[in-house]
Design brief:
Strands 1, 2, 3, 4 and 5 form a five-stranded antiparallel sheet that branches. β3 (205-212) and β4 form a beta hairpin. The chain is an alpha+beta fold and 415 residues long. The chain starts with a helix and ends with a helix. The chain is flat and about 95 Å long. It has 18 helices and five strands.
Length: 415
């Protein structure tokens, strides 16, 4: 009996010892340490870095979204209070029924408010794009030329993203280690020389001109994908999708149209990450261009040759073809046709459309004006000139279309 009683007391004492404050502190400290270590490990994985980038995006964009909602939208308490006070004031003072002039004044006031919001928030969105870089730079470039109804203040800022954007990675710390890891050898063993300054940079990679260490000493372009692009691009696409859903919820864009645009946007940029598929496409097109019956030779089209042994899922090496950039050559050709290329593509399209409309209206007026043989005789010398101009303008409308210009911009950006 005594031994059983003593054993029970010892067990109770052990339980008390285990539940003592010091034991609880040790257990709490262990759990906290484990949580911190786990969080540190996760935040350095691709998923964790992507989540951090999404948080950076929303922490910057949320105040802008709040500003528009609080000051403009009918669900905002501020707007509801303003409407309630106006209603009380209208009841207190006898007001005439709403007239078209009153509605027009209200639209002007709302537009003034929106202009103030655009003026205040456009620089903030621009700074977010510059800070995050990558896909956001590309998105800003697309929005600067799109036919979508982007506020002019935003478009002004987005246009600056077309040039002079610090969008390339450091050679010593990022690009060179990536190339040597992917190609499996020091660069000095592969290239006679390689220019550390990129000849082109985009949202997911950049290109460097180099000379191969070989008997022929071929000049090549080495296109390298940024190491972070694999997780950055999907995270950025996710943020853009969430932001687009928010715009749909606010009624700013149509849901079905935005869904189709987003799906195409996501498909396009995710496909650009697949360098292996891009290399195979380049190889196929190059080989087809060697066929003497193909249209390439007849049209004097030259395509770059791919060096497969110097290609990986993050590197593409192809022959160097000197010449103007595609966008520069397009502008040069448009200049030869008498089109002012100093303006944006959007302005060029609008002016071209206006010229076509005016030319067609002028042609119809000429037809109405010619009603007698004497008039026909008097106008016969001017009519061919007008018809020639109208025909040329009609041809230009088909050539300089919105789809054509956007295709040029998209293709030149990918180059």
């Amino acid at each position: 009996m005594l031994s059983s009683k003593a054993a029970g007391q010892a067990a109770r004492q052990t339980i008390r010892n285990r539940s003592s404050p010091s034991a609880l502190r040790i257990a709490t400290g262990t759990i906290a340490t484990t949580s911190i270590v786990s969080a540190t490990i996760y935040i350095n994985t691709e998923n964790g870095l992507g989540l951090k980038r999404e948080l950076d995006f929303w922490s910057s964009v949320t105040p802008v979204v709040w500003d528009y909602w609080w000051n403009c939208f009918s669900s905002s308490p501020k707007v509801q209070l303003q409407k309630a006070l106006l209603k009380i004031n209208n009841h207190a003072v006898e007001q005439p029924p709403p007239s078209p002039q009153t509605e027009q004044d209200e639209k002007k006031e709302r537009q003034i408010l929106l202009d103030q919001l655009h003026e205040r928030n456009a620089p903030k969105i621009y700074n977010v794009m510059i800070q995050l870089g990558g896909l956001y730079i590309k998105l800003g470039q697309v929005l600067s030329v799109t036919a979508l109804p982007i506020p002019e203040k935003y478009r002004e800022y987005f246009r600056t993203l077309q040039s002079n954007v610090p969008n390339h990675e450091d050679w010593v710390t990022v690009v060179k280690p990536t190339l040597e890891r992917e190609l499996g050898a020091p660069l000095e063993d592969i290239f006679e020389s390689i220019n550390e300054i990129p000849c082109g940079a985009a949202s997911i990679g950049q290109a460097h001109k180099a000379t191969l260490r070989s008997d022929a000493g071929e000049e090549v372009i080495v296109k390298v994908q940024y190491p972070n692009a694999k997780w950055q691009v999907p995270a950025d696409i996710e943020c853009v999708g969430q932001f687009l859903q928010l715009c749909v919820w606010f009624g700013l864009v149509d849901e079905s149209a935005s869904k189709l645009s987003y799906e195409e946007f996501a498909r396009q940029f995710l496909s650009e990450l697949d360098y292996t598929n891009e290399m195979q496409n380049l190889k196929s097109v190059y080989e087809s261009s060697l066929d003497p019956n193909a249209p390439y030779m007849r049209q004097r089209v030259v395509l770059p040759q791919v060096f497969e042994e110097l290609c990986t899922d993050q590197v593409i090496t192809m022959s160097y073809l000197p010449g103007r950039k595609f966008e520069e050559e397009t502008k040069r050709q448009l200049s030869l046709l008498g089109i002012d290329t100093k303006k944006s593509f959007r302005s060029i399209v609008k002016e071209s459309s206006g010229n076509v409309t005016n030319a067609e209206e002028g042609g119809r007026k000429d037809e109405v004006a010619i009603s007698s043989p004497s008039q026909t005789l008097a106008l016969s010398t001017k009519q061919p000139a007008r018809m020639w101009k109208a025909k040329l303008t009609s041809i230009m409308r088909n050539v300089v279309s919105v789809d054509f210009l956007f295709s040029v911009v998209r293709f030149s950006r990918r180059i």
